[in-house]
Amino acid sequence: MINTIGLVFISVGLFFDFVGCLGLVRLPDVYNRLQASTKCVTLGTCSILFGAFLIHGMTAAGTKSLLCILFLILTSPVSAHALARAAHKSGVKLWEKSVVDRYEEDGN
Amino acid sequence: MRNLAKILSGSGSRITLFILGIITWALLNWPPDWQHIIVGIFVSAFVAYMTGDFFLKRPHLLTHAGRYLWFFYYTPIFLWECLKANIDVAYRVIHPNLPIHPGIVKVRTSLKNDTALTFLANSITLTPGTLSVDVDKEKGVLYVHWIEVKTKDTEEATKCIVEKFERILKRIFE
Predict the structure, then answer these.
(1) A11: pLDDT confidence band, cut at 50, 70 and 90?
(2) Which run of H or E residues covers position B108?
(3) B36-69 as b/e, with b when 16 or more CB fall inside 10 Å?
(4) Segments forming the whole domain that contains residue B89
């Protein structure tokens, strides 16, 4: 039973990881690509790790995957924020069909 | 004696870091045995001694029980928003016409504390369609990249993006 639930989590995670990679190819500019890769890859990878934890239980592998989930949730948004900010500061333009850029207007 | 009291009064942050270090070490070396635990105690003590005073600015807040309850209330809301975000992005990526109207909007926040701002920015990044680009702490302003800009107005964008988290984070961290 617990194995099946773990496998379901791993399948869902694989799907979201796949969508994240697809977004990296399909979306137009750096910021949109960061959106897709950050969100989907965070939840997808966390889901895979949680599935691995369910299958292994409280063993050496299981506890490590729990710790990985925690560190992934803490670090992945921070790195996305740093990349987006650095891209904007170094003059990467938004997609030409973008609606508004308040950050540019405020002189940053 | 006075020195000892001084060390103890400033050591809440160090003790917290030490305990967190021990827990992390024990989970990394699961199942725990004596040799690993003893090495872990020395390593955590060293790390806590060297870097402990940067870790928490106001360790007395750790004793407020209500804040933990608000944190437990915050976790499921955050996970639910995170799941919604993923389905939203997945839909936009798979849809053949790529239905996006991206842009960077400005939102206001009344949070002042560093930890609270970090949590707010991270939550914004992991929730539907938004990615925090920069934080201006003095003006209380966040710049947010929005994949589907619904409004260009600062106040309305604040209402859409920030408010649901800000209310809870204020009770946890402020």
Answers:
(1) very high
(2) strand B103-108
(3) eeeebeeebbebbeeebeebbeebeeeeeeeeee
(4) 65-173
Residues of B with CB under 8 A from a CB of A: 24, 27-28, 30-31, 82-83, 85-86, 89-90, 92-94, 98, 100-106, 118, 121-122, 125-126, 129-134, 143, 145, 147, 149, 152, 154
Whether residues B45 and B88 share a domain: the answer is no
Residues of B in contact with A100 (CB under 8 A): 103-105, 149, 152
On whether both B93 and B154 belong to a single domain, the answer is: yes
Last residue of a domain, one of B61, B80, B105: B61
- In B39-102, DSSP assigns E strands to none
Tokens for A47, please give them.
């889901």
Residues B19 and B86 in one domain: no
Q: Are B131 and A101 an interchain contact pair (Cβ–Cβ within 8 Å)?
A: no
Domain that holds residue A47: 2-92
Nearest residue in B to A83, CA atom: B133
The ipTM value here is: 0.80
Model pTM score: 0.84
Both B167 and B81 in one domain: the answer is yes
